[in-house]
Model the fold of this input.
Amino acid sequence: SIILRGAELEFESLYSACGLFYANNKEKANEEKSLMWFNKGLEANDPKSYADLAKLYTSGCAAFGKDYNQAEVLLQKGLALRNPKWNGYFAYTLGNLCYEKEMYPLAANLYERAIKYGYMQATNKLALMYRDGVGVKQDSEKYMEYLMMHLCPENAVEVAGVYLTNRFSPPDEDIAITYLQYAANKGHAVSAIMCVAFLIEKKSKDEKLINRYLEIAFRNGINNENLKD
Done:
């Protein structure tokens, strides 16, 4: 009720919150009310309204179903706002939609734009494209360049994989474990399980460390079907 009152007083940043409430609340879901508030945000050129409504059209919600075409239009319009805080997100999310539609060269271009805008999450997507030669020419140097550009857990796991195999470099288990530990300590569940496996293989008696990695895996992988057991 407080948020609704604020939106009625034309606090533009609250339009999206009202739209999300009427979109997701199972008891009060209302497509008309949800879109009314989102449209107020769109008219005010509020980037979050464009982003949140596009996400709803991508994932679906209680008030209305998926509509990928609407999502794409909203993301394009959001990018056209040229908001420095949101440019990267819009380019990255558009890249994901293009990737799903198998428009790989366009997806790669959008990921590159997202990185230029400072949205470094796109480095992982682009690195994998260079790894597999999807939409771009396969290039192991660019693959590693984008992985090392932003050491998020997902990129660290990829680097660990490089050093666990001889695909792009000589195997080096110690370096691989270092990257896996980094990712695990950032909450990456699969990396935590792999760290446990290496500790057990090396007959480590550090039960405290093993239990810590198991706890990380449990906390962060509880919804992962492959990790539940």
